[in-house]
Amino acid sequence: MSAEVEAAIFDLLGKLPAGKSVSPEDVARAVDAAGWRRELGKVRPVAVGLARAGRLVVLRHNKPADPDDFKGVWRMRLPNPDDGASS
User: Which of 28, 34, 36, 57 has its CA 20 to 30 A from that of 47?
Assistant: First the structure.
């Protein structure tokens, strides 16, 4: 995992109200504002690893998605207590 990407994810999410999410682009821009496109490809594998570990929730259409099987536009947020055992 890229420590810099992970730190950016949690830094951004820590500044938001509970339940709010960030996009992969937001994270890539936080890592490198000028070269964010180069960083964008690093965000997904870090987010998937964090989601598998239960430290992050991957969202599709504002609903939790399986970190091993999602496509298209996605976002991420911190886990909520009501996420519980639903996977």
Answer: 34
- Domain for residue 8, yes or no? yes
User: pLDDT > 90: what percent of the chain?
Assistant: 87
The answer to whether residues 24 and 74 touch, using CB atoms and an 8 Å cutoff, is yes
pTM exceeds cut of 0.70 = yes
End-to-end CA distance of the chain: 23
Nearest to 78 by CA among 47, 57, 54, 53: 57
Rounded to 10 deg, the angle between the 36-52 and 24-31 helix axes is 120
Query: What type of residue is 28?
Result: A
Full domain range(s) for residue 25:
3-79
Strand order in the sheet with 63-64: 63-64, 57-60, 75-77
